[in-house]
Amino acid sequence: MAENTKQIRIAQALAERAHDLLISHNFAQQQIGYIHTLEINYGEKIAQRTMLEVEIAAAAKRQQTSTSHHKYIAKASIHLHQIIESSIETQLEDLDNIYHEVIGIQDSVPTILDLLAVKSASIGRLEPLVNDLPWLGRDLVSLVNLPQYRKQNTKGTSIKVDTPALALRYLGLENLQMVIPTFAMRHWMPHSTEPFSLLKRKLRDMSMSTAIAAKELAPLYGVKEQHAFTLGMLVDVGKIALTRLYLHTFEKVWQNKVQIARDKSHKDLHTALLELGPDPLFLRHLLLERSATLSRTLVEKMAFRYLPFNAVMEEFSAGYLPTDTQHVTDPLPLTEVVRKAHGYSQYLSLKDSQLIEPDEAEVWFMHLGLSQDEQKKLAKCAFQSLQLTI
């Protein structure tokens, strides 16, 4: 029992660390108390002149002022984020707004994903739906015109594809089952995640690696590869929504408070607010605690007719965080696939940043229930591209 508790505790720490890393590498290091080796002085202490009494007094005063100022900034941040948290809670109650306005999901996208899941799917049925989505048409044309995919005529000259209809035919249904979910998630990503500059790329990479890992594991569980890949790509849509929501809400609330402080000549508050930015810890908690549930409700709202995702997302969200009390008994095969794929994606992220030790990885795989054969299978995968054959 004690050993099981220890494993759960380590798994919890690793899940939190994976979310810290989404925010930034430095933030993840800070959260685990990382000390940069360049800051360690391995030599003898350099002799310095003795400070004069007046200098000591001045330094103490600066320290006191600095401490007081930072306390004021912290207090202003707490107050600001109480308002932000309340606003986010209210906004999350309006799922239609989150779906259509915050993320910008157009109804044609779930319809296309659903259509790709049926045997009667055809390019002819997809074409009018793609034509309703100019961004998707442009992305498909750009893809098939990449040098590695360009076709050549009998004279050896590259053929340029200039219409979505032709791009659809070049790609074919099998490739489109991977390409369209990928392009949809990329389209929904925030345009910018500043000041967390790498967050957008990390969200995109995690979606890609989760989808590819799920597709690889699917045959082992009797699950359709297209179902596994599509849900693997969609499973973190809640993180996209919460990131967009937080950054937009912070900017709106912050600007309002700065304007009020300026109008009322509250100089100290105005100065403190100008030094404030989005809080990495607040966003991390939001992603860790709320994203899985929001992903579930967003996928449910997509109202798929042929993709069996609702029950899977209910199980996935229920067991999202490693705990000793919250777990799903006898999960659906697709739940197992997506859970393991998502966990492996988190492992890859931590490994690439050298933030997971071999013994920790062993505990993480044990927590996921990832067998040695599954680990070997996933270790051979390429997670950076879709490996299309055109």
Architecture blueprint of SSEs:
Elements: H1 2-23, H2 25-31, H3 53-92, H4 95-103, H5 108-115, H6 123-131, H7 134-144, E1 151-152, E2 158-159, H8 164-188, H9 199-217, H10 225-234, H11 237-263, H12 267-274, H13 280-301, H14 310-318, H15 333-352, H16 358-368, H17 372-379
Antiparallel strand pairs: 1-2
Task: Walk me through what this model shows.
With 390 residues, this protein is mostly helical. Helix content is 68%, strand content 1%. The chain has helices at 2-23, 25-31, 53-92, 95-103, 108-115, 123-131, 134-144, 164-188, 199-217, 225-234, 237-263, 267-274, 280-301, 310-318, 333-352, 358-368, 372-379, and strands at residues 151-152, 158-159. It has a two-stranded antiparallel sheet. It starts with a helix and ends in an 11-residue tail after the last helix.
Rg over alpha carbons? 25 Å
Largest sheet: 2 strands, antiparallel
Structural class: mainly alpha
The helical percent reads 55-70%
User: What's the mean pLDDT score?
Assistant: 88
Q: What portion of residues belong to β-strands?
A: under 5%
How are the strands ordered across the major sheet? 1-2
Please tally the β strands and state the result. 2
Low-confidence stretches: 35-51
Overall shape? globular
Order of helices and strands: HHHHHHHEEHHHHHHHHHH
How many helices in DSSP terms?
A: 17
Assembly state of the chains shown: single chain
Report the span from N to C terminus: 53 Å
